[in-house]
Amino acid sequence: MAGSEFDDRRGAVAGGLAERKLDAFLAAFSPNLRYLTGFTGSNGNLLVTPEKSILFTDPRYAIQAHSESAGCRIKIAKGPLTPEVAGAIARLGVKRVGYEPARMTCDLYESLKSRLPMRASLQPAGGWIEELRMVKSPAEAECIRRSVRTNSRAFEWAVARLGPGTKEQDFAAELEYGMRRLGAERPAFETIVAGGVRSALPHAQPSAAPLKQGGLVVVDMGAFERGYASDMTRMLFLGSPGAKVKRVYKAVLEAQLAAIDAVRAGVAAARVDRAARATLEGHGLGRAFVHSTGHGLGLEIHEPPRIGKRDKTRLKAGMAITIEPGVYIEGWGGIRIEDTVLVTESGCEILTPTSKELLCI
Fold first, then answer.
1. 246 and 101 in a common domain
2. Low-confidence ranges of the chain (pLDDT < 50)
3. Do 126 and 142 reside in the same domain of the chain?
4. Are 28 and 10 in contact (CB under 8 A)?
5. Of 52, 59, 50, 53, nearest to 32 (Cα)?
6. 283/142 same-domain check
7. Cα–Cα distance between 75 and 89 in angstroms, integer?
8. Residue 273 and residue 103: Cα distance in Å, rounded?
9. Are 27 and 168 contained in the same domain?
10. What is the dihedral of CA 227, 106, 43, 69, to 10 degrees?
11. How far is 110 from 122, CA to CA, in rounded Å?
12. How far apart are the C-alpha atoms of 205 and 249, rounded to whole Å?
């Protein structure tokens, strides 16, 4: 991503300080640091003022910080970062420093607060950077497209190697190996593979149980590539599905397509959720849908907005979200279908290329 894009992002923060009655903003959360600077190290703080931005890190990341964070002043601390940050706040004479309350530990907050000069104070400014991150730039959208393609190719690669009696955890390992083999940095989350009645667990962890004939298999997987996440759920069936499997699968697919059809700039997130939920209720399956319809994704696998019942966020062109309704029936199994989509002015671009047909093996 071009350095000018990071300059623009920091400029937006600097330009928004006065409106929030702040003199500076301190970012310590890794995804927000990456968004604002391009820095990918595990230890960093960024102080943004109207005049300058200073990135603090330690000697392990000295070379990396200078190569990744063009446009920032780099301060390499030989010890903990907090004293260096407090010292810079004192030297710059800033009084009101915005911070990320949901992202900062109590220990770090107290440590920083105790070192500030008397005239300086920490002011909560939570969610500010996350709000900026919701709308993806063209470069970010392309990173997500690439991640989605890699994820789908890994699925196809692993499914082709799926044999009778394969353990859930072994299939999950194949999926994750496929991601890395095809260019992903790492999985976006712990891959879900669950067969038979375990497919009714929305967040099942892969077990040592073998995948058996005559059972559903839920596969929920995502990759990080160039720092950006993808997310997809597809269903397998080992053998020939019966009437109930076909009926429930058709209902979930209808709900997913109804939600996708509801996506467009200006629509409330809750309306998208309502489209999926109403479809499943029409099939008598409303109570079996136990989670929200989707979520935003980008530098994190779960980002705002939440595509849920009560989320009033208005979708904007450039938001990357998932659409993933599901039905979960204890003692029988579960079915979920998920795509990653990009919101446009007139609808959405479905990024996930993998077929949504029930894949029978």
1. no
2. none
3. no
4. no
5. 53
6. yes
7. 13
8. 28
9. no
10. 70
11. 10
12. 22
Q: Which amino acid is at 189?
A: F
CA atoms of 298 and 320, how far apart (whole Å): 7
| Residues 157, 302 within the same domain | yes
pLDDT score at 140:
98
Q: What is the pLDDT of residue 221?
A: 98
Domain count, the chain: 2
Query: Which pLDDT score is estimated for 295?
Result: 98
Please give the single-letter amino acid code of residue 219. Answer: V
Strand 232-237 with 359-360, pairing: parallel
User: Rounded CA gap, 151 and 234, in Å?
Assistant: 12
Q: What radius of gyration do the chain's Cα atoms show?
A: 23
Are 226 and 320 members of one domain? yes
Tell me the percentage of the chain whose pLDDT exceeds 70. Answer: 100
Among candidates 162, 141, 128, 172, which has minimal Cα distance to 321? 141
Boundaries of domain holding 344: 138-360
Strands 320-323 and 223-225: unpaired
pTM of the model: 0.95
Whether 175 contacts 193, CB under 8 Å: yes
State how far Cα 36 lies from the chain centre: 17
Q: How far apart are CA 273 and CA 281, in angstroms?
A: 12
CA 350 to chain centre: 17
Same domain, 115 and 190: no
CATH number assigned to the domain comprising residue 83: 3.40.350.10
Tokens 């990024």 sit at which residue? 351
The whole-angstrom separation of Cα 300 and Cα 298 is: 5
CB 303 within 8 A of CB 269: no
Query: Which secondary structure element, helix H or strand E, spans residue 336, and what is its range?
Result: strand 333-336
Backbone angles phi, psi at 166, to 5 degrees: -60, 135
Contact yes or no for 115/26 (Cβ under 8 A): no
